[in-house]
């Protein structure tokens, strides 16, 4: 795996995890939103990640293992969670139905916090990988200067 390829893979991971963090922040910001533009309560969103496909140039340059040097990760879509909204008894709420129940978003704060920690750790791991690749490149240049 080349140095630039490892940097490209880590950069794609950083971009994907930053988008995941944005989606999680959006979910947490709308945890009590009972009216959305589409009608009804806010629906939790989830970022769908997928391995970035290998391009034709990558296939031509690869001579050894067919699975080495994949292109990283990309966000395929941001989808709404299909779990039903929560029914909460709040008769004084402006969006309450005739029985006094309000449909609340399907956002679970604990789940969002776990996803937030996971995305943060993945982001940190990609930063560490980029720093390691940078240090290897600098050491290589140092070896070239001393020779």
Following the backbone from N to C, one meets helices and strands in this order, namely HEHEEEH
End-to-end separation: 24 Å
Classification by helices and strands: alpha+beta
Question: Could you report the average pLDDT, rounded to the nearest whole number?
Answer: 88
Count of strand segments: 4
User: What fraction of the residues are assigned to beta strands by DSSP?
Assistant: 15-25%
Q: Which residue ranges are poorly predicted, with pLDDT under 50 across at least 5 consecutive positions?
A: none
- Major sheet attributes: 2 strands, antiparallel
Count the domains. Answer: 1
How many H/I helical runs?
A: 3
Question: Largest beta sheet: what is the strand line-up?
Answer: 1-2
The percentage helix is: 40-55%
Q: Rg to the nearest angstrom? A: 22 Å
* Molecular shape: elongated
């Amino acid at each position: 795996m080349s140095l630039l390829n490892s940097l490209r893979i880590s950069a794609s991971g950083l971009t994907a995890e930053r988008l995941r963090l944005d989606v999680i922040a959006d979910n947490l910001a709308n945890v009590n939103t009972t009216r959305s533009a589409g009608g009804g309560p806010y629906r939790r969103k989830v970022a769908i990640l997928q391995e970035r496909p290998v391009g034709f140039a990558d296939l031509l340059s690869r001579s050894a293992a067919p699975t080495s040097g994949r292109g990283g990760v990309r966000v395929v879509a941001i989808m709404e969670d299909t779990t039903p909204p929560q029914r909460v008894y709040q008769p004084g709420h402006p969006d309450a139905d005739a029985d006094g129940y309000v449909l609340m978003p399907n956002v679970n704060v604990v789940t969002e916090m776990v996803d937030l920690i996971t995305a943060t750790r993945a982001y940190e791991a990609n930063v560490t990988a980029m720093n390691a690749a940078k240090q290897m490149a600098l050491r290589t240049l140092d070896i070239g200067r001393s020779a």
